[in-house]
């Protein structure tokens, strides 16, 4: 039985593929290589346990054809659906991007799941489904949801479609509400941006917004560990979990300083005036993970440790 | 300034159009006449305050062209977005139906809103966004949402997309989470089905499911009153409200008996074994409307009164 990973050539996807292989699973990756890179899967493909198929999961005919061929002589155990737009500002400028890359990929994954009789789907959702709860610590019971980006809206739409589908077919779904995730090989995100800005001009680092946005960060290795834990131990039909560190997060100013210290200690940091980096950005963000802790999983790093490790990894890769 | 009503030729839409005209507003209706009927708008069109345009709001190019033409020489005040699939079982059988008719019509309405600089959107959402909360009274804070039909999923997706859009443009949105709504001119629903079954065979009424499903019902005249009240009095950017009666509802058995008494008193009623009428049907359903009462609106009929009035209206129309 094979594990399907959509978006498996991406930052988080490639970590998941490696972790599944380490657990003795065979993996088929579907990725359109728009944001993902084949180089992320080098080790997995060399192992002989990973088949890579370039296909766009938002194109149902193409995705279906690729899935039928790849799973023809063996069944699918689960779909790990990670393919999505990851550029939130791009999706705010053009809502068609999140509709196509974030929602339609989910819609199509569910059709494939039914057609190929795959019993599980595990979905990379996001804290962005909640919207802005200010200083409140967000639990899975926090409501009503008012996402402020099309990215968050289409993640919530995907969750809803999964929930409805599981009523009609399939055995189990996991919905992982990701926090901000850091680590290498990064393709975007605040650390990646700061590192590359400083590599381009080592004398200065211009930060969008006032840098007081405070968010929680999880290292990608811990995220993968939590995903596998929930997929294995979730007892409901549709298992919804926040994943994050235990702390309330660190500020963008702290991140800017860690990056400066690692990349160009003499650089000057300047800040903007707004409390949001861009439309769709949540300025403050506190995440409660008691539900996940009750299931039996604990993070080992706090936001600061995760960010410091990621700064080290990303600045090393950019060298 | 004109009020746009999508799905305005439908059961609820035509009541809304009449109510807006009674308040002195001009209305433009967009409806594809698949479930709506032009006859529902006779009185509105005769008044001279309603323009009807046949167009499919899920087809962006057609909708945009129709909206540009209809609003060319006057601005739009608000979009009342009611166009949607209303056949829940059909949407469970084919998820493309709710994607197209329920979600894409919302997605396109938001693009039209931005393009034509319309500042408000008022959306017909549904209690189906919540899923099955069993005996618990559902408030706007009940979470997490686990819709069990594609209809509920695409209503939730629509809410999410509206919330994200309002972050970028527009001034105000209302999200009305409708209960079961009854009244004439009905095009579907439990009362309509029972009346037509009994008209076809006055000797018997076969009920899907065991008839013990208990739900709250609101009469359409009260629904419209609540919608107009929320649109006028909601103080947030995105105003989410449950709309319903105050009581815990009545059973399908009671409805079957009211219809039998009104249409064919000698008929025999038989019941199925399942506690759900169909996949996607929520067997029990209790709705809390304290938030709406706090805003200042009160229903005047309970579920029984609403159903009795609707049975009278629908059986009269079917005569």
What would your notes on this structure say?
The structure is a homodimer of 319-residue chains. The first copy, chain A, is of the alpha/beta class. Chain A folds into two domains: 2-181 and 217-242, Rossmann fold; 183-216 and 246-280 and 301-317, Alpha-Beta Complex (UDP-galactose 4-epimerase, domain 1), CATH 3.90.25.10. Chain A contains eleven helices and 15 strands. Chain A has helices spanning 11-22, 42-47, 60-70, 88-93, 95-115, 150-168, 190-200, 220-233, 252-263, 290-295, 303-317, and strands at residues 2-6, 26-31, 50-54, 76-81, 120-126, 137-138, 172-178, 180-182, 204-207, 214-215, 217-219, 238-242, 250-251, 268-271, 286-287. A seven-stranded parallel sheet of chain A has the order 3-2-1-4-5-7-12, sandwiched between helices. A two-stranded parallel ribbon of chain A has the order 6-15. In chain A, helix 2 links the parallel strand 2 (26-31) and strand 3. In chain A, helix 5 packs parallel to helix 6 (150-168). Chain A is globular and about 60 Å long. The interface between A and B is large, with 37 and 37 residues.
């Amino acid at each position: 039985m094979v594990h399907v990973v959509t978006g498996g050539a991406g930052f988080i996807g490639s970590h998941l593929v490696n972790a599944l292989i380490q657990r003795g699973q065979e993996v088929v990756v579907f990725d359109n290589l728009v944001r993902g890179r084949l180089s992320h899967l080098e080790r997995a493909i060399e192992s002989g346990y990973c088949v890579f198929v370039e296909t766009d999961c938002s194109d149902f005919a193409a995705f279906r054809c690729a899935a039928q061929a790849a799973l023809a002589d063996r069944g699918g155990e689960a779909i790990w659906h990670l393919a999505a737009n990851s550029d939130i500002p791009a999706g705010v400028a053009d809502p068609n991007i999140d509709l196509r890359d974030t929602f339609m990929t989910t819609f199509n994954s569910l059709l494939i799941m039914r057609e190929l009789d795959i019993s599980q789907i595990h979905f990379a959702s996001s804290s962005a489904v909640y919207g802005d709860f200010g200083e409140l610590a967000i639990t899975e019971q926090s409501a009503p949801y008012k996402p402020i980006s099309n990215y968050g809206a289409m993640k919530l739409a995907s969750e809803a479609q999964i929930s409805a589908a599981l009523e009609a077919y399939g055995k189990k779904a996991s919905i992982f509400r990701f926090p901000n995730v850091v680590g290498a090989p990064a393709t975007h995100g605040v650390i990646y941006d700061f590192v590359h800005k400083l590599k381009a001009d080592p004398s200065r680092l211009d930060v969008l917004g006032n840098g007081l946005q405070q968010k929680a960060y999880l290292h990608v290795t811990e995220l993968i560990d939590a995903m596998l834990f929930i997929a294995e131990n979730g007892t409901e039909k549709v298992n919804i979990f926040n994943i994050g560190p235990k702390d309330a997060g660190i500020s963008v100013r702290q991140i800017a300083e860690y990056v400066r210290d690692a990349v160009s200690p003499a650089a000057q940091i300047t800040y903007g005036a707004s409390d949001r980096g861009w439309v769709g950005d949540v300025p403050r963000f506190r995440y409660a993970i008691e539900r996940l802790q009750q299931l039996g999983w604990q993070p080992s790093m706090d936001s600061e440790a995760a960010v410091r490790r990621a700064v080290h990894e990303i600045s090393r890769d950019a060298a």
